Amino acid sequence: MLHLEYPLSTPTLRLTPFQRGDNYPDTGGLAGALAVKLAGQLTDRGWIALHDRDYEVSPVGERGFAALGLDLPSLRRQHRLFARRCIDWSERRPHIGGALGAALMTRFQEDGWLRKPAGQRKISVTSIGQHGFWNVFGIEV
Asked: Integer distance in angstroms from the first to the last C-alpha of the chain?
């Protein structure tokens, strides 16, 4: 269970009931409105920054992702891009792909924030996830 406390230094974001999350079955990463909002908040809070076509993780992000339980050195050693800036096909805005994006999706599922039925792309945010996305990232789902 996550116990992170970060001051809300940037405006909070709200997703309407019509905005939903998906995942990419081939990469396992988060997609859709939630993924775009997450990338925006991580950028605004200084966890990630755009560098060429990919994201770089800042020292603040290193600490934040470690607090989420992500092993960034291990993710960087994978035989895939680490933190690819992908344009979401439905939102036409960037989200985080690559090893980091897939690891976030896995973490959110393991912590009970997101639920994804087997064989489907659509995900749902649980009540635990609503609390977590708000407390950690300032995203109201």
From this structure: 19
pTM of the model: 0.79
Residue 22 is encoded by which pair of tokens?
A: 């998906």
Per-residue HEC secondary structure of the chain comes to: CCCCCCCCCCCCEECCCCCCEEECCCCCCEEEHHHHHHHHHHHHCCCEEEECCEEEECHHHHHHHHHCCCCHHHHHCCCCCCCEEEECCCCCCEEECHHHHHHHHHHHHHCCCEECCCCCCEEEECHHHHHHHHHHHCEEC
**pLDDT tens-digit readout, 19-37:** 445 444 444 678 888 999 9
| Torsion sign over Cα 90, 91, 96, 101 | negative
The widest CA-to-CA distance across the chain, in whole angstroms, is: 38
